[in-house]
């Protein structure tokens, strides 16, 4: 409601009568640039590389003239890489790793910095911005990737202009804008394997001589990528925008969008079993036995179900588990925003209020039997910026932002032997003021200083009950509790408790470590209720210093230092209800160049990041009475990240474009220490560990101290490169465009603890396409193939400790198809 009120005045203003001049509307929330440029990034001269105008620093600038490490993915590249979801962006940049971990949530890492936690009471480490609006939930990034002008990936902390939750960087998704005086439209349709049909369309209509309306939409549907049918997609969305120039100085744009996400998330596949081994002296280690399944198996096929059923659960005292549900997505997203720009001789004022809402209802399976979540997210924000200059020697930007988020959710995680029911609400209120000033003391030299003060207030109020079905003290291979049923996915606690009680199995709050009178084969369901009412208040100042020297209009060097801040959050863990913010310091030197009449682009960046007080999520004991095994986040240590990034583009001829991007990355955890439960066997890890104790409200308990210091960061391949070649062959009124490329990623760890099966192997993934198009690009027909090698690289690993299994999620398989399009 607040967002609707914020936008109401702007909606009404659109239809006010006032003279206007037509101009190209800029990118979201951007003050007009003092430089002339082509905002669409289209080549102005076929004999030189395009000038790409970006708004990464909240004003329109040539991407080659700013002291900032960023990748720009234009609309053509997004189409060629078949980017329809946020996680698909990982195909476009060597710095970005993106995946989905069940349900709608996208997980991002930039150069090993990210957040693998996917629950609703933690924040992402990358600032995701859609149409100039910060998106607070990583589960709300669906349904946006159509009719786009470009996507900007800012690499490294963006604490000054983007503020909180931007330790790893920022992703800006920028839609195309309404164009005054233009009646135009475009449509694209495609069909491919997995019965994949997709389409996008847009219509731009002028409103008099001072306004325009743009309507666009998308649909994307395909069958599952797994043999069990999971990994399917059923998505559609629409976006409407109205733009008006009310006076020569005042313009307003109002936008509304809606998206639906259906289908099912991928179930992954069982990688293998982790079996403890014993000798005369007792435990000798773990043996990993591969399952024999390929990455496309899924976990719901008869073979996968039989494999799970064969596993003996020590805690439950039996084998024979089966999955109890099938994954689905039923998620809806919508939002409204207004962008108001008022230009004066002194500068430009930009105000952007916004309201967004998400209603999530999804179910997933991977290493656990089933997970279920229902969630309502509401966010309201308003940002104001003033951009100006003082003569030709000083540019400046001042701004402030207010952000308010409210989340109500309930979730169930059925993990065979650990079944938590959760219901909670979370609220965030954040205020920030920021500024940036650039001075030009002598010709060619620019010095920049910026800062941001952020005040975050967060509150978490929730109730959870953790259930543990338990069967005395059995030992395999016998089934000591053959009649202890496996719990189906039940959606409320009353049904869950009734399920066991009606079968003569008591549900008791007796602590796990005090079970008087039980004998082997006497089952219980242990109940551990908890209530969390916690608050956080964090204030943080982040800043940026940069220097740039232009040798020529096409050649520059720069150096910068910037800090970033990732807010703290909450866990369902008594005594460990909250965790502190993490921060990062980034040192960068770089050079951006164009040579030979702007036919060759050569950009080089060297970086050193210091990542401090890092947040890490894992299973562990809370400090309650009695202690419970919970999924919690802690601050566990520091890491160092350094490397080089080389980007090359060469327009070898007016019809031949060659591109290469290479990244070298060296990461190391300087300190990475955490505690994990001691339940009789050592942890499954390649890191050194030692038994110790932990104090709780009920006394001391046994835990293991695990020290992974010295190991590399997750999702940080040492080498990564993308290469691509595009050849245009003119044939009179038509042309052929031939394109081929490959990307390489070295091996990397994708999960905690570093057992060998959590390492993704090095691989190549290649793409190719051939396009027949009209000379003026009014129509085209494309045949394409992505992932020619059909390489399904490991993207995530989860353990099912009750069944001693590991399950993995992978990247997409080979896809191919045709795509046709037309515009007028």
TrEMBL record:
Its main location: membrane. InterPro entries: Beta-barrel_TonB, Beta-barrel_TonB_sf, Plug_dom, TonB-dep_rcpt-like. Residues 286-787 form the TonB-dependent receptor-like beta-barrel domain. Pfam families: Plug (PF07715), TonB_dep_Rec_b-barrel (PF00593). Residues 64-170 form the TonB-dependent receptor plug domain. It is a multi-pass membrane protein. GO terms for biological process: iron ion transport. It is found in: Cell outer membrane. Keywords: Cell outer membrane, Ion transport, Iron, Iron transport, Membrane, Receptor, Signal, TonB box, Transmembrane, Transmembrane beta strand, Transport. The keyword rRNA-binding does not apply. One of its GO terms (cellular component) is cell outer membrane. Residues 1-22 form the signal peptide. Belongs to the TonB-dependent receptor family. This is TonB-dependent receptor. It comes from Novosphingobium pentaromativorans US6-1.
């Amino acid at each position: 409601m607040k967002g609707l009120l914020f936008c109401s005045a702007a909606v009404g203003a659109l239809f006010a009568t006032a003279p206007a001049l037509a101009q190209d509307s800029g990118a979201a929330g951007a003050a007009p640039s003092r430089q002339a440029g082509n905002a669409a990034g289209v080549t102005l001269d076929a004999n030189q590389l395009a000038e790409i105008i970006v708004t990464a620093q909240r004003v329109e600038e040539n991407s080659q003239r700013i002291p900032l490490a960023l990748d720009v993915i234009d609309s053509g590249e997004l189409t060629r890489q078949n980017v329809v979801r946020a996680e698909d962006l990982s195909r476009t940049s060597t710095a970005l790793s993106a995946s989905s971990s069940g349900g709608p949530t996208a997980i991002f890492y930039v150069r090993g910095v990210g957040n693998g936690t996917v629950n609703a009471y933690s924040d992402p480490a990358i600032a995701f911005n859609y149409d100039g609006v910060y998106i607070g939930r990583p589960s709300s990034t669906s349904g946006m990737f159509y009719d786009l002008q470009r996507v900007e990936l800012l690499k490294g902390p963006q604490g000054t202009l983007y503020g909180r939750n931007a330790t790893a960087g920022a992703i800006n998704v920028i839609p195309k804008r309404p164009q005054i005086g233009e009646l135009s439209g475009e449509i694209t349709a495609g069909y491919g394997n997995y019965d994949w049909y997709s389409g996008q369309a847009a219509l731009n209509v002028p409103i008099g001589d001072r306004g325009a309306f743009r309507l666009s939409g998308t649909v994307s549907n395909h069958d599952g990528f797994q043999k069990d049918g999971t990994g399917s997609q059923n998505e559609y969305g629409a976006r409407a925008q109205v733009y008006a120039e009310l006076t020569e100085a005042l313009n307003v744009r109002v936008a509304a969008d809606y998206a639906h996400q259906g289908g099912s998330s991928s179930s992954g596949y069982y990688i293998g079993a982790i079996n403890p081994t014993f000798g005369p002296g007792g435990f000798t280690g773990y043996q990993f036995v591969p399952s024999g399944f390929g990455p496309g198996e899924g976990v719901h096929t008869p073979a996968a179900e039989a494999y799970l059923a064969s596993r003996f659960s020590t805690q439950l005292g039996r084998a024979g588990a089966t999955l109890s549900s099938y994954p689905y997505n039923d998620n809806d997203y919508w939002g409204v925003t207004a962008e108001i720009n008022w230009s004066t001789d002194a500068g430009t004022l930009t105000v952007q209020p916004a309201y967004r809402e998400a209603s999530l209802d999804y179910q997933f399976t991977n290493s656990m039997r089933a997970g279920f979540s229902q969630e309502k997210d509401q966010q309201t924000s308003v940002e104001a910026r003033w951009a100006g200059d003082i003569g030709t020697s000083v540019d400046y930007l001042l701004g402030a932002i207010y952000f308010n988020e409210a989340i109500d959710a309930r979730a169930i995680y059925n993990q065979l032997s650990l079944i938590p029911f959760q219901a909670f609400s979370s609220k965030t209120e954040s205020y920030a003021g920021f500024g940036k000033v650039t001075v030009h003391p002598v010709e060619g030299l620019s010095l920049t200083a910026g800062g941001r003060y952020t005040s975050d207030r967060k509150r978490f109020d929730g109730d959870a009950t953790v259930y543990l079905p338990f069967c005395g003290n059995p030992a395999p291979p016998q089934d000591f509790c053959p009649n202890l049923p496996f719990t189906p996915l039940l959606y409320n606690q009353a049904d869950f408790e009734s399920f066991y009680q009606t079968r003569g199995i008591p549900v008791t709050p007796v602590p796990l470590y005090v079970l008087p009178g039980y004998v082997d084969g006497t089952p219980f369901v242990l109940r551990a209720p908890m209530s969390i009412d916690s608050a956080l208040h964090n204030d943080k100042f982040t800043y940026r210093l940069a220097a740039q020297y232009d040798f020529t209009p096409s050649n520059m060097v720069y150096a910068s230092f910037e800090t970033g801040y990732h807010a703290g959050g909450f866990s369902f863990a008594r005594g460990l209800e909250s965790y502190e913010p993490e921060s990062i310091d980034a040192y960068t030197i770089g050079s951006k160049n164009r040579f030979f009449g702007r036919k060759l682009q050569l950009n080089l960046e060297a970086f050193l990041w210091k990542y401090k007080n890092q947040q890490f999520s894992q299973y562990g004991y809370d400090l309650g009475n009695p202690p419970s095994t919970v999924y919690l986040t802690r601050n566990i240590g520091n890491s160092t990240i350094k490397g080089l990034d080389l980007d090359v583009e060469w327009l070898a001829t007016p019809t031949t474009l060659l591109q290469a991007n290479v990244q070298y990355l060296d990461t190391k955890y300087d300190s990475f220490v955490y505690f994990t439960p001691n339940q009789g066997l050592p942890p499954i890890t390649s890191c050194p560990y030692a038994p110790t104790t932990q104090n709780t409200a009920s006394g001391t308990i046994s835990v293991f101290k695990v020290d992974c210091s010295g190991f590399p960061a997750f999702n940080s391949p040492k080498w990564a490169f993308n290469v691509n070649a595009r050849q245009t062959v003119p044939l009179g009124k038509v042309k052929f465009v031939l394109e081929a490329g490959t990307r390489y990623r070295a091996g990397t760890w994708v999960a905690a603890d570093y057992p060998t099966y959590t390492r993704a192997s090095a691989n190549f993934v290649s793409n190719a396409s051939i396009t027949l198009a009209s000379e003026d690009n009014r129509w085209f027909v494309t045949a394409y193939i992505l992932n020619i090698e059909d390489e399904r690289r490991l993207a995530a690993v989860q353990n099912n400790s009750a069944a001693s299994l590991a399950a993995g999620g992978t990247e997409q398989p080979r896809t191919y198809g045709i795509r046709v399009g037309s515009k007028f």
